[in-house]
Amino acid sequence: MQTSRAAGESVLAREYQRVVTRAFSTLSQAQEDAGLEAVRRIVSDSWQRSLSALPPTGRDSAQVGLDTDELRRLRTEGPLARALPIVRRLLIEPARDTGLVVAIGDAQGRLLWVEGDHQSLRRTESMGFAVGADWSETAMGTSAPGIVVATGAPASVAQAEHFSPVVREWSCTAVPLVDPHTRALMGVLDITGGDEAVSPLSLPLLTAAAAAIEAELAQPGPDPDTTTTVFTGVSFGDRSAPVDGPLPADLPPAGATAPLDHTAPEPAALRPVVRVAGSGAPTVTRDGRERQIGLRHAEILTLLDWHDDGLTGPQLGEMAYEEAPEAATVRVEMHRLRRVLGEAAGGEVELASRPYRLVGTQGRERAPLTDARAAHDALTDGDVVTAVRLCRGLVLPSSTAPEIEVIRTALATSLREAVLQFADHDLLWTYLRRQDAQDDQDAWMLALRLLPADDVRRAAAVARLDAIDAENAAG
Description:
This protein is an alpha+beta fold.
């Protein structure tokens, strides 16, 4: 009985595809009676929108819609980065050998991740279904991701319903990913493949994954970059993280599994306002507002924050510049820096001279100004939790200043060693969100050993280790 019904549905599907093909042919030739009434409304409406942006012949391949830097920024700092582990667990891993390809795109339809069945990935690349490509209706015409971007509603598109002929051997289903707080469209989640991509189970599966992503994004994020801290009335961003507070007073020996305190409030002395760790631009936050600062000013603030005894003009020149500058160049930068510092510290910290140094005003003890120094101090005190939360990535990764490179390497090395020696599985997982930890095979192996047997994050750890093995084999 089930076989007979399936066969009947297959015949109907084939007949519908022939009707769709005829309808599109007459529509693309601008015939008045295109027979669109036989085509699903969601598809015919998309055809009309696509025709206003593309030739009737469509496109042979999707064009790249993101440059390398913007793609890297969206993948590492964008809100959808937190969606990837969920998608891998619920969709990508089960799709490895099913012929399906899973994609996450941004609100403009540009693909940020494309993973799944290896053979299908190679085939879909020929039509430009790849990372960085633009799959909006204005770029490739009717497709499930394109319709979601245009309407904000879930969509399925089967074979001939696609606008561009090169896509018509494929079927796809996609759902919107929305911001849980504003309900604005953040992106699109899509599966592409054969008939399975538009089966009755596809939409519920994608909807469930989207709901899991929304629930994750509604929670305080695990990225140390997304932390709310306060320093003398200055906010370090309107964000939060699951790990917060100091370790117990006496650290456990290596290999011990004493529980860490992830809930205690942050020590008042570790509340920085200048963010220099991580792939984003350096920023200063005050009164809840965050603004970018120049790389040179960020470098100098980091150096002065790191060296309590201060630095002379020539020392700063050697540490901050690849080639020693004129003395006047350093003086000009320090004059400009006073204004930046005043905006950052709100009068709590000022720049002294001879040598140049940061000092607390009105007899106050100066707290760390940058997240890099605060993380360093936390490590010195044995507070690995706070160090991980504050140091979300490499210190000023785009800087080539000689002393910044020294600080960057020293802090990254110390933090990694402390995490591998003392962290529990939750803290380790937070650390693994750092960009420079993505290829750290030892750290991922440790995560696999520490994670409980029923923890869903084990699948993501296995997937990452497989990817590292594949990259090593290819290299």
